[in-house]
Amino acid sequence: MTSSFPASTVLGYPRIGPDRELKRALESYWEGRSSRADLEETARRLREDTWRRLAALGLEGLPSNTFSYYDQVLDTAVLLGAVPARYRHDDDLETYFAMARGAEGIAPLRMTKWFDTNYHYIVPEIGPDTVFSLDAAKPLAEVREALALGLETRPVLVGPVTFLLLSQAAPDSPEGFAPLDRLDDVAEVYARLLAELAAEGVGWVQLDEPALVADRTPAELAAAEAAYGRLGRLENRPALLVASYFGDLGDALPVLAGAPVEAVGLDLVRGSAHGVDALGVEALAGKTVVAGVVSGRDVWRTDRDRALATLLAVRERAGRVVVSTSCSLLHVPYDVGRETGLDPALRERLAFAEQKVAEVAELAALLAVTPGHHLPGQPAAQERPRTFPARTAEGRAPYPVRAAAQAEHLKLPLLPVTTIGSFPQTGELRRARAALAAGEIGEAAYENMVRAEIEQVIALQERLGLDVLVHGEPERNDMVQYFAEHLDGFAVTRHGWVQSYGSRCTRPPILHGDVRRPGPITVRWAQYAQSLTSTPVKGMLTGPVTIVAWSFVRDDLPLREVVFQVADAVREEVGDLEEAGIRVIQVDEPALRELVPLRRAEQGAYLEWAVAAYRWATSGVSEHTQIHTHLCYSDADQILAAIDALDADVTSIESARSRGRVLGVVGGFSRGLGPGVYDIHSPRVPGADEVEHLLTEALRTVPAERLWVNPDCGLKTRSYEQVEAALANVVEAAARLRERRS
Ligand code: GLN
Ligand code: ZN
């Protein structure tokens, strides 16, 4: 029944378009500026271009169904008929976008990070009564579309186990219900889908099961075993590739090895840290191993000799080997060839999606002509042992000592009101930045605009009566890119967009060399803002973990060391801010949780060095200087101890949308705490009564002496109108509470 798997493939490909065509088409459709036919035509063209390009680059196994109007997990929910009733609409596309983005009076489904990437997926809602029904229109249409171009493809789908493990229980589910309880029913729908695909003449199907590289309970593994046993035993089905990625399968490898499926995909970049021998790939003998030796998570060229050695080692142990990427190429930009502004020496070392596909094809050709046990001529480069400077934070004075010194120095009122840093980024500022980059206006003209903006932001905050002011970050395009542009060791791209969620993309900087701070970065702006007022102005910096998490990072040094290099630079900046008379300094770490390893066994070590790097960055200042940090996720419970260990004098944290939970976990902190009182993700302006109520609630867990009043996050995406009204109410609420307490 089975045709053999093609010699080379990729697990997935970017879909937003080399020039973000899909972003533009989506946004214009949403705003009613273009028709559905326009959107569909853009999508069709992107798919066609992708398949043709992959084929032209010499790739043999082409994936399909990797396109998405928004998100592949949401696509899977639709495929399974798992659409909560409140979103149902006569028009399927409207239903789809309602789940993703909300509709008139209906909030969207929750969105969260896809494993440890910066891609966000839509979290499906599954309850005991969810009725599953197959809607195979999308994968079938893509298969046919490619076939019409003369190209045979392999539909890619999120696998049933991962789909359910990533889902959340529907709101009305009984206590103890877990979506995975519905695996039998979901597997039934996949069985029907496989039959339909077989009837269509599809030879291979890829089921993605990245959830299997995280720690799984024996019950979860047994469920996976049962599901794949069932799908594998179907008589009428295409051959199955079960793809794992983002790590090694561990205990799940024997489960897949024992399942009646034809191929298993392994991440041999991240998953082979302990060498191929430790993986137990012998168990896969008799199956095809789709060997992910070209990284889908970084932008570096593949070490060809090392990759070939890995492929040979796997072939020797397991038999049939196909060359592939470690995961979908969704997480890298399209084409480094367009980055003509990069230093050629750096560009040589880079590979984006196109280049990675060419590498896969080249490795497959090499593997085909390399006899059995022959190892490539050159041994893999030996890593030179390096020693790294030890950086131990001398530790600041104990909190009570600091708190007293700061109270004396800052003379803040009870319940001080502040913001998280950014103020609205006006279209005018964005245009000026683009004009500066294009050489249409000079540096001086641009800086005058920034200064004028700072003057307005300071005046506004003084008028509103805030207690710790900010300069508003008008000079920053992005909280990471801005620092990357001012530090040695980083490069920024022009077209290197990567999908973050839906139509949104980011352009991660590339950290390619030793990081150094050639000079102060933010100091003159903070200093200028402080010169306009006697109220303390807070200096704003991005923390070392976040700068690294939102960049593509060199792979020739341990991540920890790279983070410490960035921490060195942040520490210098913190010191310069203090010296310039800035008395409050905030170092944001919104990505602290993002880098937490998927395996529990590795989490402790990560959190330890991540915290140490933060403390190194922030502990060089005197006890008078107040250090703030900001985190923006509500599920802080997972890394609570680490947040506490950051030892910041004040921690602000997102909480407007999950109030009770956040206070429940962070209420016990022994230092300053600012649980957000204003949800900046929504255009809604909170009333003073509402904020007062939130603060009264917070006062049940946080003593007034340590409670801060602030929004959930930066105000960059809001309008001045909304911000002014909201902050006025926040200040008013704080004033009423102070009044009541005096
Ligand atoms: N200081 C940043 C801002 O206000 C923080 C943003 C964030 O937490 N993501 O924009
Ligand atoms: Zn935030």
Automatic annotation (TrEMBL):
Cofactor: Zn(2+)
Function summary: Catalyzes the transfer of a methyl group from 5-methyltetrahydrofolate to homocysteine resulting in methionine formation.
Protein name: 5-methyltetrahydropteroyltriglutamate--homocysteine methyltransferase
Domain Cobalamin-independent methionine synthase MetE N-terminal: 8-317
Catalytic residues (positions): H681 (proton donor)
Residue sites binding 5-methyltetrahydropteroyltri-L-glutamate per the record: R20, E21, L22, K23, K113, N118, R504, C505, W550, E594
UniProt-listed GO biological process terms: methionine biosynthetic process; methylation
Co-factor binding details: Binds 1 zinc ion per subunit. Binds 2 Zn(2+) ions per subunit.
Coiled-coil region: none
Gene that specifies this protein: metE
Gene Ontology MF terms in the entry: 5-methyltetrahydropteroyltriglutamate-homocysteine S-methyltransferase activity; zinc ion binding
Positions contributing to L-homocysteine binding: I420, G421, S422, E473, D588
PANTHER family in the cross-refs: 5-METHYLTETRAHYDROPTEROYLTRIGLUTAMATE--HOMOCYSTEINE METHYLTRANSFERASE
Superkingdom of origin organism: Bacteria
Residues annotated as binding Zn(2+) 1: H630, C632, E654, C713
Positions bound to Zn(2+): H630, C632, E654, C713
Pathway: Amino-acid biosynthesis; L-methionine biosynthesis via de novo pathway; L-methionine from L-homocysteine (MetE route): step 1/1
UniProt keyword list: Amino-acid biosynthesis, Metal-binding, Methionine biosynthesis, Methyltransferase, Repeat, Transferase, Zinc
